[in-house]
Design goal:
Blueprint: H1 17-23, H2 28-51, H3 58-65, H4 69-75, H5 79-84, H6 89-97, H7 105-123, H8 125-137, H9 139-145, H10 151-164, H11 171-193, H12 200-212
Helix pairs in contact: 2-3, 6-7, 6-10, 7-12, 8-9, 8-11, 10-11, 11-12
């Protein structure tokens, strides 16, 4: 099998609780934009499954999604962003902010991420696996994911600053977000390397156990 060719495209079934959670806080216009974004991504994954990542062009994706290339670029700055970004960050931030205010941040992250991960695996497992396999196998995607300013790090830093009620994150917050972002990235890459055979929620749990133990025993 070509390393940049996922075995299957994600399913295109009806809405599910994850979709309802994403749409709940949105206006009608924002919901339409969300569905357009998801359609573009779904068609991209279908084409990539058929012909590989490198052989799939933005023009082909736009045509399959019945939008113009300029519309594609309004939703995704690059083809890489189509794989590396998702709609789950707001849900994760809200789940973190819903945790008890006096709970240690690592514990909040552990509980919130495990909960969201279990929901994703129940309803959107194949799409998540396609994304993570592409990220693992395509060098440009993996390089972007491991960039120091990657999306996981920004997510945790956003949650930390909002929880603390401050405008600018402290140095300690930046270090914490960087550590959590890097650790959770390693967990999902490990899951992709196993082709989804390992329990990703268990990997996440083990990841935070190591962080909470302060790397003792290593």
């Amino acid at each position: 099998m070509n390393a940049t060719r996922p075995a299957t495209a994600p399913p295109t079934g009806p809405g599910n609780p994850i979709q309802a959670m994403l749409e709940a806080p949105l206006s009608l216009r924002e919901r339409k934009k969300l569905k357009t974004r998801q359609t573009i991504r779904r068609e991209a994954y279908r084409l990539i499954a058929e012909q590989g990542y490198e052989n799939t062009t933005v023009d082909q994706i736009a045509a399959a999604a019945e939008v113009s290339p300029s519309t594609f670029f309004r939703y995704f700055a690059t083809k890489e962003d189509l794989v590396l970004t998702d709609e789950y960050d707001p849900a994760m931030i809200e789940a973190l902010l819903a945790r008890p205010a006096d709970e240690p941040f690592l514990r909040s992250c552990r509980e919130a991420l495990i909960g969201l991960t279990r929901q994703l695996m129940e309803h959107e497992r194949e799409e998540v696996l396609v994304r993570m396999r592409l990220t693992k196998d395509v060098p440009s995607l993996r390089a972007r994911l491991l960039d120091t300013g990657n999306e996981p790090q920004r997510l945790y830093l956003t949650a930390l600053t909002r929880r603390a009620g401050v405008q600018e994150p402290t140095f300690a917050m930046r270090i914490t977000a960087a550590a959590i972002g890097a650790a959770t990235t390693e967990a999902v890459l490990r899951w992709a390397e196993s082709n989804g055979t390992e329990d990703i929620a268990d990997l996440v749990d083990r990841t935070f156990a190591i962080l909470e133990d302060g790397f003792t025993g290593l």
